[in-house]
Amino acid sequence: MSDSNYSKLSDFLTRVELPSAPESFAETTIFSHWKKAAGQNIADNTTKLQIEGNSLFVTVNSPTWAHALINSQTTILSQLIQCGFEDLEEIVIRVAVDGKRNTPRKKKGVTEEPQAQLPPATLSQVFVEIAKNASNPETKETFLRLSRISAEKK
């Protein structure tokens, strides 16, 4: 349209003042650079990235990945700075705590042998066993004395 009441969209957009991006914008854009800077394996095991001031807080899902990140954090930080995060000064590493105990998974088709159940021992029996295995004569005598005292209390 050649009407003077209409202008090009680009002319209009150059006159629009946009508010500055919120801080969360930096956190959003860092995700796009994290995989490249940290590598696929660390990125896959990263559960959270958060920028606070000049620090990047990185949460990984296990101590193993925290150790891997510690070993490469200088390189990662320099790559992130090159990607435009000039204000970053440090990477703070955290390990996610989910409240679950990490136990090894059982392999399919493998049955565990039942462990032998020992009868409960009395305290005096424990002291006697310790005394039998003690190499120091004074330690041996002390535990034998404790076993007699423990047996008398019953």
Question: What is the CATH third-level topology name of the domain at 20-95?
Answer: GMP Synthetase, Chain A, domain 3
Count of DSSP strands: 3
How large a portion of the residues is in β-strands, by DSSP E? 5-15%
> What's the shape?
rod-shaped
CATH class call of the domain at 20-95: Alpha Beta
Helix-strand pattern, N to C? HHHEEHEHH
Which structural class best describes the helix and strand composition?
alpha+beta
The separation of the N and C termini measures 105 Å
Low-pLDDT windows of residues: 99-104
- Oligomerization status of the protein chains: single chain
- Helix count, per DSSP? 6
Main sheet properties: 3 strands, mixed
| Helix content class | 40-55%
Instruction: Return Rg in Å.
Output: 32 Å
CATH architecture group name of the domain at 20-95: 2-Layer Sandwich
Structure description:
By secondary structure, this protein is α+β, with helices and mostly antiparallel strands. Among the domains are: 76 residues, GMP Synthetase, Chain A, domain 3 (2-Layer Sandwich); 30 residues, no CATH class. Helices cover 49% and strands 12% of the residues. It has a three-stranded mixed β-sheet. Strand 1 and strand 2 form a beta hairpin. Helix 2 packs across helix 4 and helix 5 packs antiparallel against helix 6. It is rod-shaped, with a radius of gyration of 32 Å. About 4% of the residues have low confidence.
